Structures are given as C-alpha cells and as structure tokens.
Amino acid sequence: MSGTAVSHSSYGGKITDPRWTLAQRVVASPHLNSSPKLCEFFLYVVDCCLRDAPEEATEQQIGVHVFHRIPGYNSSDDSIVRSQARLLRLKLAAYFANEGSNEDLIVEIPKGHYLPVFRATNQSPHVSPPPIVLPETSTLSDPSPTDISPEIEAATPIKPLRKTPWRSIAASIVCLFLGGLAGLTLGWRLPFPAHSEVDSFWKPFFGSNPPLVIYSNPLFKGTPYTGLKLVPKAALADSPAYPGIPDETYTGTGEATAIYDLAKVFDLHHADFTLKRSRLVTWDEAKLRDLVFVGAPSQNGALQELPSTADFAIDLDGNNKGYIVNRHPHSGEPASFTPSGPNDEYAIIASIPGIQVNRRVAIFTGLTTNGTQAAVEFACNPESVRILKDRVGLSNGALKPFEAVLHIKLSGGVPLQADLAALHSR
C-alpha cells in the first residue's frame, strides 16, 4: 500500500492497541478485503485517529494521501472521498452486523466527519447532530453537519407551515401524472452509468452474446476430514498416490471474490455472462464466445487447452513454488518474476484475440488465489485501467490486445496494491 497511514505513521503503539488490531480484522473481512482502496482509506483514517491528528483526516488530505489527487485539488468537483466514505460506512455496518457482532469495540465514521470513533459495544452509537432549520428569510447557505450544535438548533425558531393553496395541489397532481406517464413510456430501468476507464477493458465483452466466464475447478482426492490432495493432472486420477474418489467441487477464495467483482461491473452495464467451471467447457461453445479465464492454468483445465498467453506463463521451481516466466523479455526486463516472501505475489493479466475473428479472451491468473483476485480487481479499477490505456492504446474504444505481469503486495492474504511489472502489446 503506497502513501498509506501504515507507511507515514509515527504512532508507536499500534501492535498492542486494541483499536488497531480491530481495524486489521475489519480489513481482512470479506466485506472489505476485496476493495484495496477502501482498506487503505480505512487504515489511513484509523491511523490519524490513533495519532490524534484530525487535521490529516480532512477530505483534502484523504484525497491526496489515499486517492493520489494533487495537493490543492478541487474537492467540490471531485467527490471521490465523499462517495467512498459512504461506501465505507456501509461496509463497516455490515461487518459489525455479521462476523463482528461479538467485538468488544465498534468503530464508526460519523456522517459529516472522516475521523473514526471507537466505542464499547454497550455504548450508544455516535449520532451526528441533525441539520438546523433556518427561517425562510435567512440568506445563510446550508451548514455542514460539523457546524451544528443541538443548542443552536433548539434556539432556532421554526416558522409554522402555511396553508397550501389549491393551485399548488393541482400542479402537484399534474406533475405526478406526467411523471408516471413518462415512467410507463420510457420504462423503469435506471439509465446507464456514466462511462469510466473500466469500459475500455470490458467493452469487447458487453455484446449481445454473453461471454463465458470460466473459473478454476481443480481436481482433489480425499475428504475434508482425512485431508484433501490436489491432483496435478487428470491423468493421475487413478494413481496410487492419490487414493479415493475424485472431487471437483472446489475453487479458490480469490476466484470467488473475483467473480463477485465481475458481476458488479457487468451489472452496472446491464450486461450478462455465462459462468462455467473449467471442466464443463467444450470447444464447440468456446470458439463461438468471448472468454474470461479466472484462475491458474494448473487448476483451470480449459486454459491449458485453449489459446493462451504467448509471452508470460506460470511455472514451478524445484520446490513446487510458482513463478512467472518471461518468454520474450524486453530491454531491462527480467527473464522471470519470483515472489520475495509470503506478502509478495505476481499475476498475469491479458486481453488477447479469441479463437475466431472479432472475439476476445481475457486471462486473470495468479501464482495463488490471492493473485488471481488482485488481477481481476486491477481490471475493475478505473485508475488501473487508465494506466493500461495510456500504455497500450485503444482500438474502437477498447484496449488493444496485450499481456502483462502484475506485482502484488499482500497483507494477511489480502491484496493491497498491484503495479505493472511488465507489459507487452500483442
């Protein structure tokens, strides 16, 4: 995580502070671990709270340190902090309503503020003061929630409601009728969302023929009670080294999170996809569709048989540790990409021509399930796709074909940051 609270903090008691350990559990939960920026946002403001630095938890400072806006940017025109804060509040509420229901502490981000508030579970929740009601003759602008106190509100006179003339009632009825007529005429579906950088990656997959999204479906033998063994190849299914009945009902946690992220992107564009586990994919259907592969080739049999990446591939060393081979290194690039430790990861992301003309194949494959998750998140993030667009260019509004290697930083198995380590145009 770059530019986060973790790296710039001077607070020395984090490790033993129950508020910080609570924050770590929150970001590791399913509600937040698939959203790296929300995790960074949350940890940044928690760090500001622990260091008693409220001046660093303003909208402007959060925009600069978390969302990499330039200092002094116009936050009135750029609502990224406000919109992400609303989403973060929903995620926190979901955490404490589910797996965090037994926590001794609760953390909240009150509306109108960005500095978190920690309270014991049995304490009343923090409630922001209600908005002030001004006389109709006042020329003051609407105050923000941070400018209001209950005393001011209690002392402010409120004008009694005036009788509504019949002409206003009639006008309201006419407006409602016309609005209802427009709704019946135009349909009740919400308009398409504003275009974003993400569209340039996914545009080829938003056609009338839904793409196939093919996820890992590795073969295991054994049982969860006696231990499961991953069968490297289907040919080994009858080997004495892998006794038991073959079990192909598993996939990785990262793949599951990735499918959720894909579903959100497609849903925003009123587009569909067909989800299939790799062992059920046939050549006949694959050659007629756009394809999205989610998961490593070793656990995604269809990816081994269908056209794949030409420049980058996953291989195993003598200790069965994964790394990425760079088959055609460009100037200054290494011949391979190997993780340096447990919090280091690599993944391949690609958008290449399909089996037939005018078809496209997207590939997301990590050395581990966490890497696969990070690769899909990268393609669903406007800032990340903007970097790809600047590097590879567009053709008819979509990214030109490419292959890339991502370098991923993890924390507790949660992808926090993904950067381009190598990019080859196709």
Report what the structure shows.
With 426 residues, the chain is an alpha+beta fold. Helices cover 31% and strands 20% of the residues. It folds into three domains: 116 residues, no CATH class; 31 residues, no CATH class; 194 residues, no CATH class. The strands form five sheets. It has a seven-stranded mixed beta sheet. It is globular and about 60 Å long. The two termini are 30 Å apart.
Name its key features.
13 helices, alpha+beta, 3 domains, disordered N terminus
Summarize the structure.
The protein is α+β, with helices and mostly antiparallel strands. The chain has helices at residues 5-8, 18-28, 36-50, 59-65, 80-97, 150-155, 166-186, 198-202, 253-268, 283-286, 301-305, 369-379, 382-392, and strands spanning 105-108, 117-120, 212-215, 219-223, 227-231, 274-277, 291-294, 312-316, 322-326, 336-337, 344-353, 360-366, 394-395, 398-399, 402-411, 414-425. The chain is globular.
